[in-house]
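Question (not urgent): is this output format expected?
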Amino acid sequence: MSYKDRTVAVVIPAHNEAAFIGSVIRTLPSYVDTIIVVDDASTDGTAEVARRTEDRRVHVIILDRNSGVGGAMVAGYRLAMEVGSDIVVKMDGDGQMSPDDLPGLLDAMAEGQFVYAKGNRFLMGSPREDMPRSRFVGNMVLTFLTKLASGYWHIFDPQNGYTAISSAALELLDLEMVHKGYFFENDILVQLNLHGFRVKDVPMRACYGNEASGINPVQISVSFPRLLLQRFLYRVYRKYMLRDFSPVALFLLTGCALFLWGVLFGVFLWVRGKMAGVAAPTGTIMLAIVPLFIGFQLLLQGIVLDIQETPK
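Got this back:
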């Protein structure tokens, strides 16, 4: 079977999900043509449980070393393209993602208007009540940083891993460069923007049960901002400098230089004044304030232009 004349593959990256993987497979609707379970070096028999479902659609990939969700998904994506799937869905193996939400993702793809669709838990229900507070606050911060890094200013809930992508888009992405850890979804968005692909948010309800999250909040808070800054600079270079030097790059580069000069020189004047006990002259202070103000305005203008460049 297929969904609106599109063959569908569901890739399930699974690390020690033996308690949930069987029910996830059994609840997948009949219009899913291929189910790819990527056992990411599990030690609890996840692969065996997947095989015992005796579903002919199931393909099991076993990775010898833990590759992270991104590494598992790359392996699953490659197999999905090999079997000729038109649409490839990512669904976690812990049962948090309901098959009832699949049609929303697939409709965005089957209509041919989008090449990538992702879930957005903030468009349905009351995510502030359904989602743990720590995840809610973290998601809000990461959403803004991901907008800045990816250039998709209309999306929200970037850490939602319930996604669908067309195989045509997958073939154009450099999967070797995609981050192999939990930054995987954010990194995919950056690559999609470089190709000018359209992305759609699909409403879905937040669902949390007894499953244990493998995400370390401390590690995420340290690594994600650094990775997002790297991807932002990479995207600006590739999109606004390498292909065609755009005013966006000019505004961002000049604005950043002036803003940093204003901040650093202002801090220097403040420290020197405290140590000497003498306030800096007004004219000297203006050498920090004016670049700071102009730099902020240039950065703001660069962001506005970047928003206007969002693929629509």
